Amino acid sequence: QAKSKGKSAYERFAPEMKEVSHERLQIESRLRRALELDEFDLYFQPIVETASGHLIGAEALIRWNSPTMGLMMPDKFIPLAEETGLIIPIGEWVIRQACAAARQWQETTGLKLSIAVNVSPRQFRDPSFVDAVSRALIEQRLDPVCLELEITERLILDNTIETADILRRLDEMGVRLSVDDFGTGYSALSYLKSYPFDTLKIDKSFIRDVMIEPGDAALVRAIINMAHSLGLQVIAEGVEEEAQTHFLQAHGCDYAQGYFYSRPASADSFVAWIRSNHRVSGA
Ligand code: C2E
Ligand code: MG
Ligand code: MG
Ligand code: MG
């Protein structure tokens, strides 16, 4: 945009741009050492069966406790990790930790809980990715069906042949595959019938106003029906209010996740949440 406005616009904004890039360089150099220094942490947010309220598993969400910059949220550093390629070792760490956590909850609760892990595009396309997933499952002795990999729509539409091959290999391994932030991408819906996805996660932007915006309500109902027609399950993200849970129940949405049930919590708090939660499923 600065370019289209000519040189003067660029010069006017140049000092700010310098500051931004300086901050990025700082984050980047600290990000490089964060794994060695053990500064990452996984938080877990419960995913529940909408009809019963039973816990079925959790989504793993990364946090970075930087001693110099404080608690950093993923939106602040995942894009940079992606650009620099650091997402590959960080992503491997996440998958390993997530599988270990799921295995541990299964042992302590006797429930076959599953764990959902976010995968970013560069990580997904890295030649080491499929093997890293397989290794984590074996090392942590986790049943592949208990691992769900979340992939965004944009990634799916980017690079078809390679993407199809990676998805097929993951599917053959037995892990579950979900489309994250569904509805926010370019939605060439045809990929849904050709790729081995198990689940659609309806983006929280549709859930937020589902009780007040008829358009959002119509879209959510349509997504649920379409997903079910294709044999996919549906998770609603960003559920914050009880009324939303009733809407989702009434329209047959399978699973829900959001602040209404729990905010993302540290591993210890998540285990405490399971213990104090009497709606735990016996399945
Ligand atoms: P996401 O995968 O769509 O994760 C859901 C985000 O929504 C999380 O933000 C979660 O804290 C937030 N959320 C959950 N319930 C509610 C709710 O009721 N209301 C609202 N307003 N928000 C809710 P978070 O943890 O900041 O993560 C942001 C994004 O960062 C994630 O979006 C995901 O794309 C990415 N991310 C997180 N962890 C990882 C990771 O380990 N690897 C990769 N590659 N990306 C990650
Ligand atoms: Mg996700
Ligand atoms: Mg499958
Ligand atoms: Mg999402």
Automatic annotation (TrEMBL):
<protein>
    <submittedName>
        <fullName>EAL domain-containing protein</fullName>
    </submittedName>
</protein>
<feature type="domain" description="EAL">
    <location>
        <begin position="24"/>
        <end position="278"/>
    </location>
</feature>
